[in-house]
Amino acid sequence: MRNTIVWIYSLVMAGLVPLLKLLARFVPKLRPQMENRDIHSADRKLLAAKRSRKKYGAMFFCSSAGEYEQAKPIIGRLEEKDYFCLIVFFSASGYNFAKARGESTSFILAPSDTVWAWGELFSAVQPEFSIVVRHELWPAFLSTAKGWGAVYLIDGSWSGKKPTLLQRLIKSWVVGFFDRVYVVSDQDAEAFVANLSIPKERVRVCGDTKYDRVKERAMEQQETIASLQAQLKRFGDRKRFVMGSAYVQDMDVCLEAFRSYPKMRDWQIVVAPHHLEEELFKKIELKAKAFDWHCCRYSQLAKQAPGEEYDVIIFDVMGQLAELYGCSDAAWVGGAMHHQVHNVLEPACHGVPLAFGPKHLNSVEAAKLIRLGIATSLSGPGEFIKWLNNTVDSAEDHKRHLQSSIDKLSGAGDCITKDITVSTFN
């Protein structure tokens, strides 16, 4: 019955995809998501050749950049055990992020979710098992993966919302493909069992690999951090404030606060917009000019004369935000002034005092850091200035407390890798 449903679903998808590709010609925002998803014979042969040089194979399905980072601790541990790993991205932005990072593990964009497209890819990779990171629950992928070996969900978490009857039925059916579900907390385990009727023995609490990843990335990238630090220091030897994943709403708070801050000239502001768009760069440049601040884009610093002082630097480079946080004395994580906060762990793992807007309920980590008194939620320029003054006075205490907290939350990578490799071959 399950196979019949998946085949019918695949037929529908096979008819829908050509229509979406046609629509993408007229919808610019849709176009990047539909391009480069066809996996040709030459691509499969190359993957098969790489796979043949390793003893084992594993496939990872990631939504975007965040899930990719969560997969990395497992990938690193498996590659040490002679695994060929393939990362499959649903989102073009995740693919572009991995490309910008110079990722050495093989990665591709997901093909159409049909049993035929996946069948050809799995035949080339021949994985012992497949891993889905968090929430990419595509029926044809899961059905095909199940035919090749065990299928695991890692870093599972429950949103807290009670699903409707239809949502529960669909999700229970899809989650039924997984041999084991690794969740972040005891509360998540209880929610998965209660809402999706998963047997308790198939759910394991291992924590979240994102904590392992931020620690590992911070250690791996010390040379990159030192290089960024040296480049920024050439154009302003001051304390450094990094505004990461920044939207216009975040800039309205932070830049306005610095405008009236008496000690503004003690700081260099580095703005890393969430969307690297020319229009947004120009808005920042115009605002800096209106405030009588000297501004430059990071990509243009190499062309400037050494010793030139810049009050504001626009970080127009993809893939190095985590390392940029390592160069800061205080940081703001964007998104929470209007929608939801982005990754608070990237600055936290460096021991950087951090703040963000009030809309942070999407992030368990943000709530934990606030409870521990080592991160702050702010809603306006006045609160921002008070926070910045307090931060300068207690920077070392912040650093020790933050790094200790991250250490205590790490360990999911080892837990999951050991359990998967043991259960797969027993």
> Which stretches of 5+ consecutive residues score pLDDT under 50?
none
Structural class: alpha/beta
Average pLDDT figure: 91
Estimate percent helicity: 40-55%
The major beta sheet can be summarized as: 7 strands, parallel
Distance between the termini: 28 Å
H/I helix tally: 19
Q: Based on CA inertia axes, which overall geometry fits? A: globular
**What radius of gyration results from the CA coordinates?**
23 Å
Topology, number of strands:
14
Cross-sheet strand order for the largest sheet: 3-2-1-4-5-6-7
Strand content: 15-25%
Account of the 3D structure:
This protein is of the alpha/beta class. 50% of the residues lie in helices and 16% in strands. It has 19 helices and 14 strands. The strands form two sheets. It has a seven-stranded parallel β-sheet, with helices on both faces. Helix 6 packs parallel to helix 7. The model has no long low-confidence stretch (mean pLDDT 91).
Summarize the structure.
50% of the residues lie in helices and 16% in strands. By secondary structure, it is an alpha/beta fold. α5 links the parallel β2 and β3 (106-109).
